[in-house]
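Lay summary. Proteins are chains of building blocks that fold into shapes, and those shapes determine what they do. In this project we predict the shape from the chain. Here is one chain we studied, written as its sequence of building blocks.
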Amino acid sequence: MDERTRADVERAEAAIVEHYPRLVRLAYLVLPPSMGRHPRVLTAHGLVQRALPRVLPRARLRRRVSPLPAQRGPAPGTGYTAVRLRTLRLALAYEPGTGPGAAARLLPSVPVVWGLRLFPQAGGADELALDQALSGVPAPVRAALGLWHLEGLEEDVARAVLADAGVADPEAAQRAAGQLDQAAAADVAVLLNSGEFDPCTVQTRPTDLLRRRQRVRASLLAAAVLVVGAVVVGVAVPGEGVNSPDAGRPASAASFAQQALEPERLLRAPNDQWADTSRLDFTTWPARGRQAGNGKLLARALRVWAEPPADARITATAGTSTRPPARPPRLLFAGLIDGVMVVVLHDGERLVRYAEPEAATPTLHFARVDDADVTTGAALVIGRGNGWMRYLIAPWVSDATTRDLLAPDAPARPLHLAPDGVTDRVPTPPEAATACGRWPVVQFRSSQRIAEDHRFLVTDLGDLVPAHLSYLPAPADGAPPQPPREATGPEGLRSWARTACSLRSLRGEGVRSVNNWEFARQRLPEGGGEATWVCSRADTWRGPGLVTVQLQPPATRPADPGLVAGRARNTAACSRFGPDVVGDIRWRAKSGKWYLLAAGSRAVGGITVAGKVRAASGTGTLAAPVAHDAPAGVTGRLRNGRSLRAIP
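And here is the predicted shape, written in a compact code that computers can read:
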């Protein structure tokens, strides 16, 4: 080996050591998703480890048969560039009709894992949608996407790398990658760098323990039968034959856990039970869907829930357990939704949505729904796609319409409901990284059998159950405190038009309901008009709340957003257990002068400002001139003598 060759190998070794996770992620992306997540993880690691060039003495070079294809054109650069190219070639070889062919598809000698299944961390709906989209394109397109978003290569450079890796039409692969990127609902670069596509950060589960145990028991039983059969041939013992009283008697009663996996034991509510009970939640939903009697489908759903296979995708709303069922759950739905077989089960505390795509791994989505009511138990997400979703509605919902929160004066549009309770497709609200040009919501009306004219709004926040939106207007002078009301009236819709886009920060938080509370109104300095102080409180299914305080100055358009004054997590503020609140913000007048504005709820009788800014007010609002960056601490004085700090 000459010095130049030795240096090349050393640079390649250093590149693999330094960029190993990066290379494995690229290999995992290019490998066919149809392999399954466990084989894909192991193969990706094995390919990167095989990408290190082996340099033998010159005397043996002629006799060596390499599993790698001969490189076309000029030799690639050394170091990371060469290792990346070899990794791409090996990964592309697993695609039928692409790359160097089956000669290079040798199983990696390492790593080997026995008794465990490895798979990356499960992502959310966006990651799942992207993975499904990637499974529908050939390996060169996935490679082009990886070189673009993971490697950050320019178009010309990436095209050359694809050509060197053996891709027949690199330009077509890049065009298809660009189309896939544009069609995605979220930032593809962010998703590809998430845990969903990271084969170096994996979760482990044992292989199918029940099946392995059954096979072992079957083997032992077969051996025992052979031995016993050999002994008893020609020997008859009176009272021990098939007519014995104990013949056919089970060895032991089935456990509760085993009963929970039997489809015939699933609970099913009568169709009209909801109309004859004071408890309106998921326990009164009847079983619906054309496949509600499909025992094989229900058995598969229960079996996957009890012991998910290694390649199953599992997502759970924040604070929700994914444990197996402890007793037979309740069947809510079983049927075909947009080409996917779906089963929805309820165990009294959680909803479990089992999805069985025709050519993909099954998915499980868990969501906590304990203590649901007529509004928070009115619907669940039965299907979801790129930019759309469908609801399965409660039996007490008699009518549904859609509207845009950012257009409060626009009329609602009818939403068709199928006989099985499934709605037509509804647009999904924008993601956090996209522009907020609209915010679709659904307005339900309860049946007159439970309420005369009860309408309410729900919105999708990426979870299995939508969030209920409500509204509480500013208190009238001398009027007693009021509970939140439905946000379907003109005032509620106008309030939500200015705060709807802030809901993007609540996606994936397991939010049960969000209330807009107009806790104060304040005259702005220099004739700036009247502003409204709003506290938006999001209550989660697990208990803790998330609070956002906003100042809403006079708006020129109905959907002009307010100014965020403060946020807090895990707080009782703005709820019936924390009815007092103080907010403050720096506000700039038209003259260019800055003011410190502060306001409190009805129990606040004064406000004090300390620090480099000192001011005080004997009422529930305050406006003081201030430097834009001058630190100040705002405290409200309650009428009962206690003090309350402003939400930061």
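What the prediction tells us: The CA atoms of residues 278 and 483 lie 21 Å apart.
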